[in-house]
TrEMBL record:
This is YifB family Mg chelatase-like AAA ATPase. The keyword Nucleus does not apply. Keywords: ATP-binding, Nucleotide-binding. The keyword RNA-binding does not apply. It comes from Zestomonas insulae. Residues 286-387 form the MCM C-terminal AAA(+) ATPase domain. It holds the Pfam family Mg_chelatase. Belongs to the Mg-chelatase subunits D/I family. ComM subfamily.
Amino acid sequence: MSLAIVHSRALVGVEAPAVTVEAHLANGLPSLTLVGLPEASVKESKDRVRSAILNSGFDFPPRRITLNLAPADLPKDGGRFDLAVALGILAASGQLPGDGLDGVECLGELALSGALRPVQGVLPAALAARAAGRTLIVPKANAEEASLASGLRVLAAEHLLELAAHFNGSAPLPTYQAQGLLRRTPPYPDLAEVQGQVAAKRALLIAAAGGHNLLFSGPPGTGKTLLASRLPGLLPPLDEAEALQVAAIHSVASHAPLDCWPQRPFRTPHHSASGPALVGGGSRPQPGEITLAHQGVLFLDELPEFDRKVLEVLREPLETGHIVIARARDKVRFPARFQLVAAMNPCPCGYLNDPNGRCRCTPEQVQRYRAKLSGPLLDRIDLHLTVARETTSLQAPPSAGQDSASVAAQVACARQRQLQRQGCANAVLDLPGLRQHCALPLDDQTWLEQACERLNLSLRAAHRLLKVARTLADLDEAATIGRAHLAEALQYRPAAG
């Protein structure tokens, strides 16, 4: 057999498009040609594969070898195709039976000795292989990650010789069994550890129940960061599809997807982070912080200290739930459905309106500080809360009913009502859903419109206010939005301008 076909997977964003590795042997001077838009790291695989085949005891065919990575218009990079190329050459030269390659897909980088080295982005390939109904062959170091795709048959190997024995039938590889690394996650920090701050805890409850964005403002040391870190523990657990999405993103980003699987991510980029660090980018686009926070929480501490241009890139993903990275050669779309929680001081020194008179900021300094945040960005934050300083009491007991377990139970009930009613959290309701599920009686609608006019709120802000009111009604297990829900929602929305 002079032609062999082996299936593999590329990596584009968080997708794993199929790649067919075709190996053809022809008469002529010995040579090896690799085509199919390979990047430099793929071109180098020729030498790795040659050494791996020879050091594994096989013959490298002294013929004219042509390797095609199809489709030809899809760029290929990395060492993930080494194993498929080696198996293709061995099958085309008759050293391995080619019929056993039909129902499998291969990923793995080869060492010069023939040992298999792990590659990144295995989980997206595993999900795609499962959808295609094929068995996936991976290095043993990637097997646990691939096994997250339930229902997929995974074969794990440490050396090229193990695969040769498997395809020859002398020592078939067993289906890999997960080693029990899943769901061993550390507990979330408890909300009961936060002293006082009843109003802030109420805002956290509302944010978690409806998936709303939240901004804490207050002097240093009032617990803004402490409160924000408790939000992931209040959110409902990820379902299997969401957990796999999160793990796939971290697999692509070279982070160990099992470290906190299946917990919701909590990302805290430093305020010196650049725009590409936040949204993703690079010549080969990689996910940024907003994608790594997908299905979780993105916490921006010291919000006005971020560069304004960096913050403005958040506006699109906050609305759409995804980000598109455009490059000259291609566009890559990354998911970015996250909950934004931000914290800021009221002025540059942080002590504006302090009763002890510690603030020395001029009105102009305060205005410049707050002007770093644009109106459109603040418009997209549903809940604005001032966190006041609590009295110092190091031994204060936790408030009853304000531990994470109690609050998470309320959040779960409210989210269940939302899923049964509209199939999504209130924060992501579209305009038709808003009209259907947030309808108001005529007198309440008139009252709300007048309040929005007095506060100079935009139509977007009014819609978000309605979503918060709908969440408050769900927490009260009310079928419709009442005047009290509207009034409380207005308390979390500052006047514009």
